[in-house]
């Protein structure tokens, strides 16, 4: 029996595959089971036109047997099998795929999913096996054949006996070498776990004999005894939930699937099923969790959906299927149209993935909008957990991301000064009076702190609504948004309110009080960029603003994320010329300029405290206040 040699190209490819192509050795089982599924698909397809084939689809199955004594794993199927030419062409020449050829030959529209495309998956078994034997008999043939190889040295093909049509793949598992523990693949429970992980949704039953703990008959109730028995079980679930019609699956089944697959003890807040046919055909089952995971913002948190091709797991966490702002979404996507690379671990082209991602993003956003309209309380609970992610999506749109800024704006909520609850931008605009030109907002550390800001008084007096921005990301997102429904967003704290003729009044008053403003600026020096009369204060004597552009809240955020980089926005001190404190300051300038300087410093520190800024010298401020108590 002469040993045949692989072609030189095939030898190099085999060596490359064993050492480089596949990321995880455990993937070999997925490839062998996928080949078995392909073989049964081929025979099932032929049975549609050949009455001599007595097997029906429910008669097909795969058996996985483990023999720890001989260190073998055997995968058997009752599919179409192979003859001598098939063995030479498909196993003698690596990367010559019978599955790909078959798929090209079947008529268009046939109900058959052929997983294998490249003819290399079989050889992945050499990552864990020292030698492989294939015993096979093709449908319609009497003669069976045995193919055997120990790797790149070559292979033999001999005639043999086999009673039934189909293929047995017998893999001799390597001995353990240092940290390489190949023996784990001789553990039935471990192999069953890999079947469920990668091949759970192959449409045919995958059967294994597994150990089960069972109570011994006759053992007493107070001291029950147990024994280990071995029973044949179907390991895989076969028909995935997402391939079934929505009307055929209960919410309880969807919830159970989510909780078990994604290890969440709480039911999902939202379940969305998607079935799309078009440029790229795919089905998806996605979930919005009820609560933010404890490690959601941690580096080890893995985002992305599970990606399947024809029911076979391709990627555990495919982050390219969703934009980053939807990283909280869990679920699966299954498409037969993916162009996979040689190891089926990555995509050859990302066009299909981009089409799926764009479609899925729109559908998830649409479902969240529906949740906001129909179940507001539930949506607000969702927003509490994941609203920050949506705001990051707005920022992503400014950096050239794929996010649709306008669509995301519809999902944002902010606390309202007039409604005393969370409101959307649409709800705000619908309540605006005709004379109001802007959507007003105020940033701060909390609702209570913002509510006490002096700058909000005039708008409150007019009963105009203010949105309270309490997260560090809010102002960055608002600047990206710019305007909504043709209404510009304007800061109450730092921008002009533009309520009427206050500009002319301010210019006249500033000219009259110029000496006071100059004195305060001279006293404070570089502590402030400018001193001016305020157009926004009513009952408060003073406030501190940053002017247009970056705000104090932005400054705090930048200092927190990059403490090594000096970062500060300008301080503008605004004084209320109608307040008694200003009158006292003005009077002190005439009688006691030292006291007037003390007043100026105290007012500056008070403005900083109201703005939530740290004082440069808290001790000095305390001394200044105490000096007035003598």
Oligomer: single chain
Estimate the global geometry from the Cα principal axes. Answer: elongated
Give the N-terminus to C-terminus distance in angstroms. Answer: 114 Å
Strand content: 15-25%
The description of the largest β-sheet is:
8 strands, mixed
- Gyration radius (Cα, Å) is 36 Å
Structural class: alpha+beta
Widest β-sheet, arrangement of strands: 5-4-3-6-2-1-7-8
Q: Residue share in helices?
A: 25-40%
Structure characterization notes:
35% of the residues lie in helices and 20% in strands. An eight-stranded mixed beta sheet has the order 5-4-3-6-2-1-7-8, covered by helices on one side. A hairpin with a 4-residue loop joins β1 and β2 (72-77). The longest helix is centred in the middle third of the chain and has 24 residues, at 351-374. It is elongated and about 120 Å long.
Summarize the entry for a quick read.
It contains 19 helices and 22 strands. It is of the alpha+beta class and 630 residues long.
Note the topology.
Blueprint: H1 8-21, H2 27-47, E1 62-67, E2 72-77, H3 84-91, H4 98-105, E3 129-137, E4 144-149, E5 155-160, E6 166-173, H5 188-199, E7 206-215, E8 226-234, H6 251-261, E9 270-276, E10 282-288, E11 305-309, E12 312-318, E13 330-334, H7 351-374, H8 376-398, H9 405-409, E14 413-416, E15 422-424, H10 425-431, E16 439-443, H11 447-451, H12 457-461, E17 466-469, H13 474-481, E18 483-484, E19 487-491, H14 502-512, H15 514-524, E20 530-533, E21 542-545, H16 552-561, E22 572-575, H17 580-591, H18 593-610, H19 618-627
Parallel strand pairs: 1-7, 11-13, 16-17, 16-19, 20-22
Antiparallel strand pairs: 1-2, 2-6, 3-4, 3-6, 4-5, 7-8, 9-10, 10-13, 11-12, 14-15, 14-17, 18-19, 21-22
């Amino acid at each position: 029996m002469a040993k045949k040699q692989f072609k030189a190209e095939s030898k190099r490819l085999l060596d490359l595959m064993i050492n480089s192509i596949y990321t995880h050795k455990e993937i070999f089982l997925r490839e062998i089971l996928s080949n078995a599924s392909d073989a049964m698909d081929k025979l099932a397809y032929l049975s549609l036109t050949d009455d001599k084939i007595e097997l029906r689809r429910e008669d097909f199955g795969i058996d996985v047997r483990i023999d720890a004594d001989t260190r073998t794993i055997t995968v058997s199927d009752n599919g179409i099998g192979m003859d001598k030419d098939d063995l030479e062409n498909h196993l003698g020449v690596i990367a010559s795929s019978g599955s790909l050829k078959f798929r090209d030959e079947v008529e268009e529209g046939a109900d058959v999913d052929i997983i294998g495309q490249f003819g290399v998956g079989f050889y992945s078994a050499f990552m864990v096996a020292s030698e492989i034997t294939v015993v096979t008999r093709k449908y319609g043939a009497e003669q069976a054949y045995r193919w055997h190889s120990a790797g790149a040295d070559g292979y033999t093909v001999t005639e043999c006996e086999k009673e039934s049509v189909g293929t047995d793949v017998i893999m001799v598992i390597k001995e353990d070498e240092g940290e390489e523990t190949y023996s784990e693949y001789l553990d039935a429970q471990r192999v069953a776990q890999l079947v469920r992980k990668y091949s759970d949704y192959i449409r045919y039953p995958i059967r294994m004999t597994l150990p089960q703990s069972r109570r011994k008959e006759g053992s007493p109730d107070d001291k029950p005894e147990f024994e280990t028995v071995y029973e044949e079980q179907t390991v895989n679930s076969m028909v995935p939930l997402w391939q079934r019609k929505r009307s055929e699956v209960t919410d309880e089944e969807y919830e159970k699937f989510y909780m078990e697959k994604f290890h969440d003890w709480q039911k999902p807040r939202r379940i969305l099923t998607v079935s799309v046919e078009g440029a790229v055909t795919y089905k998806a089952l996605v979930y919005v969790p009820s609560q933010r995971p404890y490690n959601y913002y941690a580096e080890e948190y893995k985002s992305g959906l599970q990606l399947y091709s024809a029911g076979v797991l391709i990627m555990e966490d495919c982050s390219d299927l969703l934009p980053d702002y939807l990283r909280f979404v869990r679920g699966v996507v299954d498409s037969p149209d993916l162009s996979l690379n040689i190891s089926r671990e990555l995509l050859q082209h990302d066009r299909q993935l981009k089409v799926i991602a764009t479609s899925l993003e729109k559908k998830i956003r649409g479902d969240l909008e529906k949740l906001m309209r129909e179940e507001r309380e539930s949506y607000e609970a969702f927003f509490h957990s994941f609203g920050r992610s949506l705001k990051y999506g707005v920022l992503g749109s400014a950096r050239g991301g794929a996010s649709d800024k306008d669509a995301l704006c519809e999902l944002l909520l902010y606390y309202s000064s007039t409604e005393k609850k969370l409101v959307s931008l649409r709800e705000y605009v619908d309540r605006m009076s005709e004379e109001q030109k802007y959507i007003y907002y105020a940033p701060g550390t909390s609702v209570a702190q913002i509510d006490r800001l002096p700058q909000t008084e005039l708008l409150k007096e007019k009963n105009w609504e203010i949105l309270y921005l309490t997260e560090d990301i809010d102002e960055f997102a608002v600047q990206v948004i710019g305007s909504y429904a043709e209404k510009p967003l304007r800061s109450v704290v730092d921008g002009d309110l533009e309520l009427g003729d206050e500009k002319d009044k301010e210019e006249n008053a500033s000219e009259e009080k110029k000496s006071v403003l100059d004195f305060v600026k001279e006293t404070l020096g570089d502590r402030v960029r400018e001193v001016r009369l305020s157009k926004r204060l009513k009952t408060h004597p003073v406030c501190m603003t940053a002017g247009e552009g970056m705000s104090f809240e932005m400054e705090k955020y930048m200092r927190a994320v990059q403490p090594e980089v000096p970062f500060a926005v300008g301080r503008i001190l605004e004084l209320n010329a109608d307040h008694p404190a200003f009158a006292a300051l003005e009077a002190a300038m005439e009688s006691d300029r030292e006291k007037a300087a003390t007043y100026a410093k105290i007012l500056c520190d008070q403005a900083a405290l109201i703005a939530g800024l740290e004082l440069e010298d808290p001790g000095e401020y305390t001394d200044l206040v105490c000096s007035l108590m003598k």
